Each structure stands twice: as structure tokens, then as C-alpha cells.
From TrEMBL:
The lineage of its organism: Bacteria, Bacillati, Bacillota, Bacilli, Bacillales. Gene3D superfamilies: P-loop containing nucleotide triphosphate hydrolases. This is AAA family ATPase. It comes from Planococcus chinensis. InterPro entries: P-loop_NTPase (IPR027417). It comes from the Bacteria.
Length: 199
């Protein structure tokens, strides 16, 4: 099993790239808003939402790590100035690594104008209802840049399986292709072909 941690600031394209990776590799996409959208109608964007979200995610990771699914693509907005985020990432990695699974880090970055444009895309709004208030969502995007550092510094991530991609001018399929190439991931077609040869 493989865990691909796909991270970067809001509206950089994590979910859409993750969807392309899922399509091309057969790994399962677990994007960060899946838990947030579940909890938001009850608690809004409060500390309770984020507390429960973290608990749900951790329990899902534990079950996933013991399952026979081929792998997980998990998207995450990682604030590098927050020790809580670092601790969460380390915990997630340890859950999978303790079961003998491989962990890959894929970091995305794009300029703010591009991200503001992507914040309004139909696919994003379809899968993330809490982003449909464009004015509020854009305000949050800009404020988060002022309050937190949402991309790593050079040399900050010390992992062999790590790639950083500026996808300002790349589409999701092209970005996913670069991740597949960097980590030598098998495509769904390759996996099906290999299975057919063994049968």
C-alpha cells in the first residue's frame, strides 16, 4: 500500500490533481473536505469541527492501513508554522509506516492569482459546498496567506519520496503525470495488465 500526502495552500489544485491520480493509478482519493463537509452543517468552521475531523481521519487511516486497498491519496493544507500540523502529518505517516507501507510527499504551489481563479471552478464548488460563498472563500484564502506559511522552505522536508511542483501553468492531468513519474507509480492499466498476466 502507498500513502500519497498531497499538500499545498487552498485552491492550488490538490483535489483535482488527486482525482487524476485516482483515475490513473487506482489509489483512493481522500480529500480533506470530505470530513469537513460532513461536520460543517452541525458545527460550522469551529474548533469542534476540526477536532472531530482529526479524530475521524485518524480512525480512517488506521483502518485503511490494515486494509487491502492499493493506497490512499490524502490532500491537506499544511501550515508549516503550526506545530499541530507537523504533529498531525507525523502521526499519519507513522500509522502507515508502522504497517510497512510506503509514504510519498507531493507538494503543490501556484501564484495567488491562479489560486483565486481556481477557487471559483465548477468542480471545486461541486465537491466543496462550503466554498460556494466565493467572497468569503476568497477572503479566507487571502487571510490564510497572511497568517500562515503554506509551502515548505528549501530543505525543510527531509524525505526521499518527495516532489515539489509549481502547477501555476499546469493542468491537473499534467501535474498528476509528474507525480506518477517522480514516484514511479503504476498506472491502473499497468496494474490490470500485471494482474492479467498472473491469472
Amino acid at each position: 500500500m502507498k500513502l500519497i500526502l498531497l499538500f499545498g495552500p487552498q485552491a492550488v489544485g490538490k483535489m483535482t490533481v488527486g482525482q487524476e491520480l485516482e483515475k490513473e493509478t487506482g489509489l483512493k482519493l481522500f480529500h480533506n473536505h470530505m470530513t469537513l463537509e460532513l461536520l460543517h452543517p452541525f458545527f460550522g468552521f469551529t474548533e469542534e469541527t476540526f477536532r472531530l475531523s482529526a479524530l475521524i481521519r485518524e480512525e480512517m487511516f488506521k483502518s485503511m492501513a490494515k486494509s487491502d486497498i492499493p493506497g490512499i491519496i490524502f490532500t491537506y493544507v499544511w501550515a508549516f508554522d503550526r506545530e499541530e500540523d507537523k504533529a498531525f502529518v507525523e502521526k499519519v505517516c507513522s500509522i502507515f509506516e508502522q504497517e510497512g507501507h510506503e509514504v510519498y510527499f507531493a507538494e503543490l504551489e501556484a501564484d495567488v492569482e491562479t489560486r483565486i481563479g481556481r477557487n471559483k471552478t465548477e468542480r471545486r464548488l461541486q465537491h466543496k459546498p462550503t466554498k460556494r460563498n466565493i467572497g468569503e472563500s476568497e477572503k479566507n484564502l487571502l487571510e490564510s496567506m497572511e497568517q500562515h506559511r503554506l509551502n515548505s522552505l528549501p530543505g525543510e522536508i527531509q524525505r526521499d519520496n518527495y516532489v515539489r511542483i509549481d502547477n501555476t501553468y499546469l493542468g491537473p492531468a499534467e501535474t498528476a503525470g509528474k507525480i506518477i513519474e517522480a514516484f514511479a507509480l503504476n498506472s491502473s492499466a499497468d496494474a490490470k495488465g500485471a494482474a492479467g498476466c498472473q491469472s
